[in-house]
């Protein structure tokens, strides 16, 4: 409802979401998640990273959480060697680690300079994330599994999050997303939302601490048009509204009675 009301508000005002929500700048960096899944071989990871780099994108993400941290470290090492020092390589553990394994994993990954380690621990373990953040120089990223603004506040106040990944679809819409982003800004922490690039491109563009859009093209089947890219940067849509061109026929085809 909140997102629909923002859409109506933007259309009535004749403004695109990125401008009405803050209007910081229209183009934002993109990182690719599509080439980094845990089941892919190391060769595939390297190919995906080189493809993103060639396209002019500033970052890629690889999933971690293999049975032994040495295997994750080896996959990251291979990618780092292929792309050189400048490309940002995000890592994502999807809440798979225990406290002790997360400490070991972070230590194994550190030499290859990951841009962040995402959801190393279960999302409700805030003190665990704070402890890990103190023990590693890799920034800790959280947010895709947080559903309320006070959780973000506690993560930030305790130093447990160095990157906030609020997801508008999970936190209750654009209004609470902006509150989470502004709360992060007050702690000098960047916001790099999880998933839903078609909407989040406009929100990252709106706020000064918006840093990255995550490239996961999983809404292709129900939308028309592609995320606009210019010189390796995503461009927030200029049309009035939230900027998503839904394919209503494709959505109707998926209706369950
Ligand atoms: Mg994630």
Automatic annotation (TrEMBL):
One of its GO terms (biological process) is carbohydrate catabolic process. Its cofactor is Mg(2+). GO terms for molecular function: hydro-lyase activity; magnesium ion binding. Residues 42-139 form the Mandelate racemase/muconate lactonizing enzyme C-terminal domain. Keywords: Magnesium, Metal-binding. The keyword Oxidoreductase does not apply. Gene3D superfamilies: Enolase-like C-terminal domain, Enolase-like, N-terminal domain. SMART domains: MR_MLE. InterPro entries: Enolase-like_C_sf (IPR036849), Enolase-like_N (IPR029017), Enolase_C-like (IPR029065), Mandel_Rmase/mucon_lact_enz_CS (IPR018110), Mandelate_racemase_C (IPR013342), RHMD-like (IPR046945). This is Mandelate racemase/muconate lactonizing enzyme C-terminal domain-containing protein.
């Amino acid at each position: 409802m909140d997102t629909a009301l923002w859409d109506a508000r933007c259309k009535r005002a004749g403004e695109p979401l990125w401008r009405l929500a803050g209007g910081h700048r229209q183009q934002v960096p993109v990182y690719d998640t599509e080439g980094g899944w845990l089941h892919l071989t190391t060769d595939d990871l390297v190919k995906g990273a080189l493809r993103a780099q060639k396209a002019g994108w500033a970052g890629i993400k690889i999933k971690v959480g293999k049975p032994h941290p040495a295997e994750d470290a080896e996959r990251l090492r291979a990618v780092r060697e292929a792309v050189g020092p400048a490309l940002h390589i995000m890592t994502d553990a999807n809440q798979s680690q225990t406290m002790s394994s997360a400490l070991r994993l972070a230590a194994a990954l550190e030499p290859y300079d990951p841009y962040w380690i995402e959801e190393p621990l279960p999302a409700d373990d805030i003190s665990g994330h704070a402890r890990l953040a103190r023990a590693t120089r890799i920034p800790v990223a959280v947010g895709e599994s947080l559903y309320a603004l006070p959780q973000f506040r506690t993560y930030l106040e305790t130093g447990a999050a160095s990157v906030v990944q609020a997801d508008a679809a999970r936190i209750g819409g654009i209004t609470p997303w902006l509150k989470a982003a502004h709360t992060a800004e007050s702690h000098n922490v960047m916001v790099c939302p999880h998933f839903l690039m078609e909407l989040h491109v406009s929100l990252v563009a709106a706020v000064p601490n918006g840093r990255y859009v995550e490239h996961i093209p999983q809404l292709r089947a129900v939308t028309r048009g592609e995320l606009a890219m210019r010189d390796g940067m995503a461009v927030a849509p200029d049309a009035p509204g939230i900027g998503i061109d839904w394919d209503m026929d494709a959505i109707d085809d998926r209706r369950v009675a």
